Amino acid sequence: MADILGSGRSRGAVVLRLIALALLVFVCVFKMFLTYRGLDQPAAMDQAQIARAVAQGKGFVTSVLRPVDVVAAAERTRGDKTLDFNDYRDTTHAPLNIAVMAVALKLTGYDNFDSCRMTEGDGYVYAPDRVIAATSMFFFVLAMVLAYMLAARLFDEVVACASTCFLVLSDLLLQYSVSGLPQPLMMCCMLGSLHALLSACRAYQDVYRYWALFYVVLAAACAGLMTLSGWMGLWPALGLLLFCCFYFRPAGSYALAAACVLVVCLLMSAIRNYLDQGSVLGNAMLGLYNSFGNGEDLAMRAADLNNRPMDSSYFALKFLGHTFGQLRGLYVNMGSIIVVPFFLLALLNPYRRSEVQAIKWAVFSMWGISCVGMALFGVDAALHESQLAILFAPLFTAYGVALVFNFLSRLKSAEVTFNQVRGLAMFIMVCVSAGPFLATLPRDLYLGIWLGDRGRPHFPPYYPPALNDKLVKITSPNEVIVTDQPWAVAWYANRKALWIPTSAEEFTTRIEPSLQKGGTQVQGFLITPSSHSAIAKEVTGTPGGMAGIMANMGDFAPLAMEGKILQIVPRHNVALADFFIENISSNTRSVPMGQIVSSRGRFSSRVPLLGAELLYYGRTAPTNQ
Q1: Pairing label, strands 615-618, 605-608
Q2: For 195-210, how does the pLDDT look when each residue is reduced to its tens digit (9 = 90+)?
Q3: From CA 282, how far away is CA 277, in angstroms rounded?
Q4: Beta strands at 496-499 and 64-65: parallel, antiparallel or unpaired
Q5: DSSP letters of 179-242?
Q6: What per-residue confidence (pLDDT) applies to 343?
Q7: Closest CA to 229 of 285, 183, 277
Q8: Helix H or strand E segment including 64
Q9: What is the pLDDT of residues 318-375, one digit of tens each?
Q10: Under a CB-based contact definition with an 8 Å cutoff, are residues 537 and 552 in contact?
Q11: DSSP annotation of 88
Q12: CB-based contacts of 513-516 (< 8 A; 24+ apart in sequence)
């Protein structure tokens, strides 16, 4: 029997592993096959459409065009150089997660867009969405295995099992597991780095210095892969270097070797960015507009960043405000796991084993530097491509659970045993942490079984059948669609999509000439619920209602309002854009929005793709292709 259970393994340890495994299998089946609704994150759709191009052998070609990139690319193209927006390279996203998606799409045959076309009425979930979600789920499962193993190495099987139960029942982690965002892959890389760092600390204490250096280099390589999965991963990687600089002696020697490995990992992407956009950072620094400008989205939708200056006044106060905001959102951003805040108390608790003490400070260093990075870039949403807090949930949870069990072990009672107290405490804490997941479990199960394969779309604002079927039939793949959700148009319709600018004058004087220089032109405008629905506040980060529409759409706000009015009075053929055919002042150079899109403008044909919710404005009356 000992051979079956494994040498040195107790029956209780095997039971704990089976419990954790059964729970993990249940939540994976639940999320993937019963309640999956398709992608709903803009960054995931954006990366997915690039991954499809990679799978087709085109390279990191993107169909999502941002005004700031379009104009900058046209200005860089001089002399004998040519510009082709049919072969425009992306530098916004890190390449590793995209490459993994590309492999998944290629293996399943979904790199061929025409092989997975949807027909409205047959279902609401786009088949390649499931491939992208399954890829994220694979790395989520791998991350949970790595987290279990790391907690067992640091503490014991009981702590590892308890930590895993907390993690797999966290509603936020489960959202990440099917989101298509890079966090599951980044979490795997971070946990791999901490596994290597733990081995380095043990070797260093045993005076096996060469092995310690090898493991530090391995940890840096994993940190480099984490950065290549998401650019924000550079911040915890810097925290790792900071820890190595102070922990290993002679000071800085191990950190220098790790830094060299990290630089090598990043060098190829930096070269690619420079060749494609003339900058080693690509669009990475535009994220600063979230904190010190008018927002990253508005910056990317501008033709000239000089018109969107960053506000550097009161820099220190703003930075401190964003930093304390990270502390305020610690509990929510790490999955609302009740034991997470106990990690901060664990910092004050001395551990007998030096490697456990060392990893504690390594995690704190990585998290602290990450908080600085997220404060600089204004990351506050719990579910976001740049959110780093969720990466630390496994270690914060493990140390928190260990500290709680340590407190309970000091309770003296003749009536109950320590295992009973520990089991009861674990059950209560898991139920509290899993509250958001358990509260929606019955409803999600009922809807999942009732709807079956049809699924429920994330509407508003996304409705894949209309984009994948109707929009494809009335548009050309060689021209550009201006829209408020270009990531969805690029992924579901396989069409080039320009993120709608806020200035009509910039559109006509700078953006359209730049597109023409790149061998293409605008064929129409698509207005979706991203601009005018109640969900717009979550999608764009702007206020809801009329104020939100104005802030988000600028000169093109009447188009969003037109769709909203048509929903309120569906029996009336309202053309609100016709009221904006002329400027109120004759001194302004601005082009009236109505001259661009209205019944009397250049794009005069209004086609409802889903009633007034999705309106497409084309040049001429469309015909089926």
Answers
A1: antiparallel
A2: 999 999 999 988 777 8
A3: 6
A4: parallel
A5: T--SHHHHHHHHHHHHHHHHHHHHHHHTT-HHHHHHHHHHHHHHHHHHHHH-GGGHHHHHHHHH
A6: 95
A7: 183
A8: strand 64-65
A9: 777 777 778 888 899 999 999 999 999 999 999 999 999 999 999 999 999 999 999 8
A10: no
A11: P
A12: 513/74, 514/70, 514/71, 514/73, 514/74, 514/75, 515/65, 515/70, 515/85, 515/480
Strand partners, 522: 480
Residue 586, exposed/middle/buried by CB under 10 A (0-12, 13-18, 19+)? exposed
**Spatial separation of the C-alpha atoms in residues 231 and 233, rounded to whole Å:** 5
For 187-200, give the DSSP string: HHHHHHHHHHHHHH
Specify the 3-state DSSP secondary structure of 606. strand
Exposed, middle or buried by CB within 10 Å (0-12, 13-18, 19+), for 578?
A: middle
Return the structure tokens found at 256: 């220098």
- Cβ partners under 8 Å of residue 412, min gap 6: none
CB 311 within 8 A of CB 401: no
- What CA–CA distance (Å, rounded) separates 295 from 291? 7
Distance CA 404, CA 342 (A): 8
Q: What's the token pair of residue 510?
A: 């700078």
Band the pLDDT of 7: cuts 50, 70, 90: very low
Q: Residues 39-69: pLDDT tens digits?
A: 999 999 999 999 999 999 999 999 999 999 9
Q: How far is residue 431's CA from residue 293's CA, in Å, rounded to a whole number?
A: 41
Q: Provide CB contacts within 8 A for 145, sequence distance 6+.
A: none
Inter-CA distances, 46 with 125, 132, 135, 196, 462, Å: 17, 12, 16, 33, 14
List C-alpha distances in Å: 108 to 148, 184, 468: 30, 21, 19
Q: How far is CA 538 from the centre of its chain?
A: 14
Contact 397, 306 (CB under 8 A): no
Higher per-residue confidence, 478 vs 541: 478
Tokens of 587: 């001194």
Q: Tokens 């706000």 appear where?
A: 557
For residue 591, the 8-state DSSP code is: P
The pLDDT score that the predictor gives to residue 1 is: 27
Cα 412 from chain centroid (whole Å): 47
Q: What would the two tokens of residue 255 be?
A: 């950190």
3-state secondary structure 313-326: CCHHHHHHHHHHHH
Q: pLDDT band at 514, cuts 50/70/90?
A: very high
Would you say the C-alpha torsion 297, 298, 301, 306 has a positive or negative sign? negative
Q: Is 536 left (phi over 0), alpha (psi -120 to 50) or beta?
A: alpha
- Closest by CA to 495, choosing from 458, 519, 526, is 526
> Residue 463 above 70 pLDDT?
yes
